[in-house]
Design brief:
With about 300 residues, this protein is mainly alpha-helical. It is built from 15 helices and 2 strands.
Length: about 300
């Protein structure tokens, strides 16, 4: 797809959604930049294009932007940082974050946002060279700084009314976790309620739903269970489970099944709970999450007297 057609489709989708140029590009770029993109006079950087498409609910995998050597290196570094985090290599992740920070311009708010969010998750080096986590208040400050790079007027009480990219949803998810860690569980629950409302009502693509809904449903249902709201825990976790199956996104499936199992146990539906524990164990096993498998073995033995 050439740049003219790409700009045309961005403008067409924006018009269909009754969004102004200011609405779409707020916190990302100047309206004159978006105008040039829509008219085909300027090719957007890959990171900017991705977020514009996500805010419009368009599946970015079907669109292509020219990519130069520098953009390719930043794209690879981003993927390597995510991989380091997934495989519990915080030192490798921090080294790559430093390299990425040196590589990008100060105007690239999207990648600076990614760096801040990543640092909040990974942690920082102490005086002995060990990676230690940030305390929840410092983590929250990093995350608020990150979200306000692209949503300058971000309001925790108005989440569902703002067009959000996948990364912006992930930042709000992490913010909710900091409130939960600080004992403000009900505030976190309200944030997840708004995020779930967002996925139900806003114009987001199936790709965004498949990534964000299981994460939201897992954390939301877990907190509902801690509040003793077991019927709601099952309802929300079931939404996430169905999404995992529908879109073949199984990373959170084991946790969602376990949330359902715990809620069923509290409701004294032990046979159903036992079935979900077993399903959760095998979901974790199939996705090679062996530490969670060991935790589930212990839980199953202590709760039901069964060996997995």
């Amino acid at each position: 797809m050439n740049s003219y057609n790409l700009g045309y489709y961005i403008k067409k989708r924006r018009t269909e959604l009754k969004m102004t140029q200011e609405d779409l590009c707020f916190g990302l770029c100047e309206t004159c930049t978006l105008s040039r993109i829509e008219s085909g006079k300027q090719d957007p950087e890959r990171s900017l294009l991705t977020v514009l498409l996500q805010r419009l609910g368009l599946p970015e995998e079907y669109y292509f932007a020219p990519i130069n050597k520098k953009e390719l290196e930043t794209f690879q570094l981003r993927n390597e940082i995510i991989a380091c985090n997934t495989h519990n290599d915080p030192h490798g992740a921090l080294q790559r974050l430093d390299r990425l920070e040196q590589l990008i311009s100060s105007k690239n708010t999207i990648l600076h946002q990614f760096i801040l969010r990543s640092r909040s998750i990974i942690g920082k080096l102490d005086e002995n060279g060990n990676v230690v986590p940030y305390d929840y208040l410092s983590k929250r400050e990093l995350l608020l700084k990150a979200i306000r790079l692209t949503v300058p007027k971000f309001n925790l009480d108005n989440v569902a009314k703002t067009p959000l990219s996948t990364d912006e949803v992930k930042i709000i998810n992490q913010l909710a976790i900091t409130y939960s860690e600080n004992g403000e569980r009900r505030r976190a629950i309200e944030m997840y309620r708004q995020l779930l409302e967002y996925t139900n009502q806003r114009y987001i693509s199936t790709e965004q739903i498949s990534i964000t809904l299981p994460i939201i449903a897992y954390n939301y249902s877990r907190l509902l269970g801690l509040e003793g709201r077991y019927e709601e825990e099952i309802e929300i976790a079931e939404k996430g489970r169905k999404c995992c199956v529908q879109y073949n996104k199984c990373q959170n499936l084991g946790g969602l099944l376990l949330n359902i199992a715990c809620a069923l146990h509290e409701l004294e539906k032990n046979e159903e709970s036992k079935e979900k524990v077993i399903e959760s164990y095998y979901a974790y096993k199939l996705t090679e999450n062996f530490s969670s498998c060991e935790t589930l073995k212990k839980y199953a033995k202590e709760t039901f007297g069964i060996s997995l």
